[in-house]
Each structure stands twice: as structure tokens, then as C-alpha cells.
Amino acid sequence: MESIERLIRVIPNFPKQGILYRDVTPLLADGQALRSVVDAIAEEFRGRIDTVLGIESRGFIFGAAVAYALGCGLSIVRKPGKLPHQTFSAEYALESGQDSLEIHQDAFGHPCRVLIVDDLLATGGTAEAAAALVERLGGETVACAFLIELVDLKGRERLAPRPVFSLLRYDD
After folding, report:
1. Chain center to CA of 97
2. If you placed Cys at 73, which of 8, 14, 29, 51 could pair as Cys (CB 3.0 to 4.6 Å)?
3. Does the annotation mark 56 as catalytic?
4. Catalytic option among 44, 56, 58, 135
């Protein structure tokens, strides 16, 4: 994972003062590194899930690749108004208010073991909303998987008792 970590660009004060943004685009541009990340996540969950749920937007990239590696389907959650068919919605708290995610009401069959995938775990609000949507559809959240976890923001605690898997963990 050391070679993977070197491909994550740290940008101070983006998108606002005091934030250290973890930019994964250099990793995405490196085919071997991307394959290593996808393989590591896929191997952890092989034989344990039926579908991957990708969170908008970088979760679509990693989630689609993991689903392909596992030979299973991909479902997605998006910001409001972006999905064309009937949806369910779940709200989550932001520093400055509320936001929400939506999922198609027929996103996956029942019963379904779901792996939620995103690039980064911070406070856990987005993944918690995604898990609520999985559960509303009658699915089981097997785990939430992330490339990066910002440990100090305690997202793992917020997602409990759901298991959390992360490849890289930062204390900052």
C-alpha cells in the first residue's frame, strides 16, 4: 500500500481553509495502482456479497471496478434529482445543514448482501445514509469499504455496528 499512498495527492485548504483534501486522481491514472486497490477490496469480500453500492461520484469508479472483479452487480446512490425512476431518499447531516441521497426503488433484488463502496470515509454521514437506503430496500449491508479513512473524524464509529474496511488510514 506504500506505493498506493504515494499516488494520493494532498492539497491543503481545499475546498476550504483548514481541510487537507486527498486527491485520488493520480491513483486513478495509474493502471497498476488502480488494479491493486480494486483487487485488495475485492479479495476481502469475495463470496460474501451479491451487489456493490457505489456512492456518487468517486464511489462509482471504485464500486464499478470492484463489482466487475467480483462478477456481481452494481447499484448506485446519487444526489437528489439525478435518478430517472422511482426513488427512496435518505437525509444526512453536513457541517452547514442537511443533504440527501437517493436510490432507485428497484436497485437490487431481495434478499441482497450489499457492499457499500466510496473513496473516502470522513464523518460517515454519506455512507450512513447509503446504508439506510440499503436497509430500506430490504438489503443487508455486509460492510462499507473505502480507499481512505480519516480516522480522527470518527466515521467508523458512526457506521457501527456495520463493519468498515479501509486500505489507507490517516490521523490528521
Report:
1. 21
2. 51
3. no
4. 58
